[in-house]
């Protein structure tokens, strides 16, 4: 008798339907791959970036997916270091989402550098005074950690589990997973932070520049904090969407509520820190460099004060206040709303610290630099989302991602 | 990345930066090596126990 590829005790859609789904997603993926080929073959002139505007749409996507992927390291910290058992019911999915996010980030960087075959230069000839070098190191090594955390789940596939070496390998990796998780937390702290540091050290760009602690601007800590707060919310959001599409309950409500509570308090404390940071920047740092607050939020068709309101109030304070209350966490609609707002909020923060930084004028005779992406940039930004959808689909079908799936869906 | 690369300097920045990288890589490398070796031993033990049963 042949071993089925689908895990025991769970139901999945017919193969025909699944292949059709993959074909649709694959078509979008191929569009992105074609754009990627054009950028690698013809050069970065395929984009609307130039010497004045060097960080654009896909760098926003890069920072955003890294922040959203923060659920992996923080869930790993809660599961393996703090020892919270509830997290074990969602850690597999958090790792998969993290794996997708970080592989997408590395793909985006490979496209961004224009000549990916020289990507090893950042390791071989490392500039030890650069925040980006630190980012590259930690991103690459943390991606290796995520692959290591993902592998035991892959080895759980019924067909692979029959191979003794892979079965034992998965088991033994589980035994020492705390070591990898701790390394992942250390690496994530630094690369999440250094992405904030990239903006915060720009003393020539008053919109981004911050003072800080020793060599680290305050944006370093704010980025790590917001990723740890909003990342688990992204995991919850994707899990709920997966439940809606598959029409199955995959994770018990107690898990959502625990993660919501932790995220809520993280968001609240982050929000307070962010408000203090914004106040000090607006009243002391920017004026010392010759700017008023509204200089950064007027005189252009896009960046008004609404973006600061959206980030801090709608994207941070509102979800925090929902999540710190039991009633908010226990209400499915409110929990989903809070997760969506938190994810959007951190996305807006990354947008402001990348695109608004580059757009804001620096000299009295300069105007706002309004940028719009080329179709190649849009396609290569959509590419990681299509890839992620594909990997999630395959993982959900062939791997036992959710330990509680069978008990929560007895009919299947 | 290595001391034999031309721009290497024995200063605090290089030691901290590269030291951190090699520290993380060493932990990961040792962890995986341990898992691989133990898995080979466990697989051989299982195969040996299977042969004894068969005989």
Short description:
Chain A has helices at 15-42, 57-68, 70-82, 91-112, 121-124, 131-154, 158-161, 164-175, 177-200, 218-246, 253-288, 306-323, 326-330, 332-359, 375-398, 405-408, and strands spanning 212-213, 216-217.
What is the succession of H and E elements of chain B?
H
- The number of helical segments of chain A is 16
Q: What is the residue-mean pLDDT of chain A, rounded to a whole number?
A: 93
Oligomer: heterodimer
Could you report the average pLDDT of chain B, rounded to the nearest whole number?
87
Q: Give the DSSP E fraction of chain A (strand runs of 2 or more residues).
A: under 5%
Uncertain stretches of chain A: none
Computed structural class of chain B: mainly alpha
Distance separating the two termini of chain A = 22 Å
| Helix-residue proportion of chain B | over 70%
- Assign an overall shape of chain B: rod-shaped
The CATH superfamily of chain A appears as Formate dehydrogenase/DMSO reductase domain
Strands of chain B, count: 0
Give the class-level CATH name of chain A.
Mainly Alpha
What Rg of chain A is obtained from the alpha carbons, in whole angstroms? 22 Å
Order of helices and strands of chain A: HHHHHHHHHEEHHHHHHH
Give your account of this protein's structure:
The complex is a heterodimer of chains A (412) and B (55). Chain A is mostly helical and 412 residues long. Chain A has one domain: Formate dehydrogenase/DMSO reductase domain (Formate dehydrogenase/DMSO reductase fold, Up-down Bundle). Chain A has 16 helices and two strands. In chain A, β1 and β2 form a beta hairpin. The mean pLDDT of chain A is 93. Chain B is an all-alpha fold. Chain B has a domain of 28 residues. Chain B is 78% helix and 0% strand. Chain B contains one helix and no strands. Chain B is rod-shaped, with a radius of gyration of 21 Å. Chain B starts with 11 loop residues before the first helix and ends with a helix. The chains are: A mainly alpha (412), B mainly alpha (55). Chains A and B meet through α6, α8 and α9 of A and α1 of B.
């Amino acid at each position: 008798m042949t071993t089925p590829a689908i895990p025991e005790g769970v139901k999945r859609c017919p193969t025909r339907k699944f292949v059709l789904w993959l074909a649709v997603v694959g078509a979008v993926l191929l569009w992105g791959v074609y754009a990627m080929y054009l950028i690698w073959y013809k050069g970065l002139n395929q984009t609307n970036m130039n010497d004045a505007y060097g960080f654009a749409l896909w760098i926003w996507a890069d920072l955003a997916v890294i922040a959203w992927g923060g659920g992996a390291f923080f869930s790993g910290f809660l599961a393996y270091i703090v020892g919270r058992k509830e997290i074990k019911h969602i850690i597999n999915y958090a790792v998969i989402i993290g794996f997708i996010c970080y592989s997408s980030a590395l793909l985006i960087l490979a496209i961004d550098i224009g000549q990916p075959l020289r990507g090893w230069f950042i390791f071989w000839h490392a500039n030890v005074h650069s925040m980006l070098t630190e980012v590259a190191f930690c991103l690459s090594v943390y991606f290796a950690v995520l692959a290591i955390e993902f592998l035991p789940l892959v080895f759980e596939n019924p067909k692979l589990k029959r191979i003794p070496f892979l079965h034992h390998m998965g088991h033994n990796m589980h035994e020492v997973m705390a070591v990898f998780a701790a390394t992942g937390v250390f690496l994530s702290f630094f690369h999440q932070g250094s992405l904030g540091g990239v903006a915060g050290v720009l003393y020539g760009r008053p919109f981004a520049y911050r003072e800080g602690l020793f060599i680290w601007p305050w944006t370093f800590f704010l980025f790590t904090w917001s990723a740890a707060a909003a990342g688990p919310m992204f995991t919850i959001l994707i899990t709920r969407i997966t439940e809606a599409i598959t029409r199955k309950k995959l994770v018990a409500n107690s898990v959502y509520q625990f993660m919501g509570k932790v995220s809520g308090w993280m968001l609240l404390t982050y929000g307070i820190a962010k408000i203090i940071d914004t106040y000090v920047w607006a009243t002391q740092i920017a004026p010392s460099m010759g700017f008023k607050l509204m200089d950064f939020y007027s005189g252009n068709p896009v960046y008004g004060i609404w973006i600061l309101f959206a980030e801090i109030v709608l994207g941070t304070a509102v979800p925090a206040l929902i999540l710190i209350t039991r009633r908010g966490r226990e209400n499915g609609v409110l929990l989903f709303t809070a997760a969506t707002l938190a994810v959007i909020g951190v996305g807006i923060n990354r947008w402001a610290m990348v695109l608004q930084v580059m757009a804001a004028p620096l000299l009295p005779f300069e105007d706002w630099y309004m940028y719009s992406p080329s179709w190649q940039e849009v396609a290569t930004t959509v590419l990681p989302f299509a890839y992620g959808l594909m990997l999630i689909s395959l993982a959900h079908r062939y791997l036992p991602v959710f330990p509680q799936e069978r008990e929560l869906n007895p009919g299947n | 990345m290595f001391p034999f690369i031309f721009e290497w300097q024995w200063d605090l920045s290089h030691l901290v930066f590269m030291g951190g990288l090699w520290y993380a890589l060493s932990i990961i490398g040792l962890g995986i090596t341990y898992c691989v070796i133990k898995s080979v031993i466990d697989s051989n033990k299982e195969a040996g126990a299977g042969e004894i049963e068969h005989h």
